[in-house]
Design a protein that fits this description.
The protein is α+β, with helices and mostly antiparallel strands and 286 residues long. The chain has two domains: 97 residues, predicted glycosyltransferase like domains (Thrombin, subunit H, Beta Barrel), CATH 2.40.10; 171 residues, no CATH class. Helix content is 29%, strand content 30%. The chain has eight helices and 14 strands. It is elongated. The two termini are 35 Å apart.
């Protein structure tokens, strides 16, 4: 089990942390690395193993300050510092990849001036964004999944764009602006319906004021089974995800939003599973 924990995403980072014990004692430490489940600090090891503490992680920007408060407990002490495990996963982990580290002596000039990743801390639902030449789509998706975020991820390249919706780190839906194969064409290719069936339903779709989805019309007319529709929509979402994994240039914007999957047909699959399947898919194409 210990071997598996070390494999999880960890990010090297330098920032001040205030550590408070239940007795009210507070001391300052410096982050050495951080993950979704734990943090390792350069800190005087005065706290006892299993002791509960409160952490205040302080990120200083050029014109603002972001403080992340997390409860944790001490799990390891050594000559270099102290490791602490969060009581709940750190949902703000992507901030540490997209928000640049700053010098700790009061000079807020970014240490990595070449980074184009930014985090906007002007409101509670602030997005983070960046360049896909700085962070790969694979790593970006991994961070969103590990942090169990909910929201909308927009990806833009010179030739196309994609939008994905995630719920607690799982992919629920996605679409391409320029999709070479829409769901109706996919259903024809897989021999579920004929082109005549699709044309008939498209005509009905255009003639209705409150337009239902094409798939729903196909099911209502008896041309398609609901289970087959759900299967193909999920396969289409996966195909879009696999295509986007190959993008190597462009930009991304993630907006933290409340996402609901109560209605409609959604994928709801873990990011790490999709990334692995996508890598295998891309390897098979080469």
């Amino acid at each position: 089990m210990k071997e598996q924990r070390r494999v999880k995403t960890r990010i090297n980072y330098s920032a001040h942390v205030l550590v408070s014990s239940s007795t009210g004692e507070t001391i300052k430490g410096i982050i050495r690395d951080v993950g979704t489940e734990s943090i390792y600090l350069d800190l005087d090891p005065i706290f006892e193993l299993d002791e509960p503490v409160n952490l205040e992680i302080i990120l200083l920007g050029a014109n603002s300050q972001l403080t992340i408060k997390m409860p944790a407990r001490v799990v390891r002490k050594d000559q270099n510092g102290v490791a602490m495990r969060f009581f709940t996963p750190l949902e703000w982990l992507p901030v540490f990849s997209c928000f640049p580290s700053f010098k700790l002596d009061g000079d807020n000039t970014p240490q990595d001036e070449g980074s184009t990743l930014t985090f906007h801390s002007s409101n509670k639902t602030a997005p983070f964004q960046g360049d896909l030449s700085v962070i790969t789509i694979e790593n970006l998706m991994q961070l969103v999944g590990n942090a169990a975020l909910s929201g909308e991820l927009q990806l833009t390249t010179p030739s196309n764009s994609a939008v994905f919706f995630v719920l607690k780190g799982t992919l629920v839906y996605g679409y391409l602006e320029k999709n070479p194969m829409k769901i109706g064409q996919r259903l024809i290719q897989e021999n579920y319906i004929t082109s005549e069936h699709l044309q008939e339903c498209l005509t009905q779709y255009k003639g209705e004021l409150h337009r239902p989805k094409i798939g729903k019309i196909l099911v209502e007319k008896g041309y398609l089974q609901q289970d087959d529709l759900e299967k193909e929509i999920k396969e289409q979402i996966k195909a879009i995800f696999f295509e986007v994994l190959s993008w190597q240039e462009g930009s991304f914007l993630f907006s933290i939003k409340k996402i609901s999957s109560d209605e409609g047909i959604f994928l709801e699959e873990r990011m790490d599973h999709l990334i692995l399947a996508g890598i295998i898919h891309l390897d098979n194409l080469t």
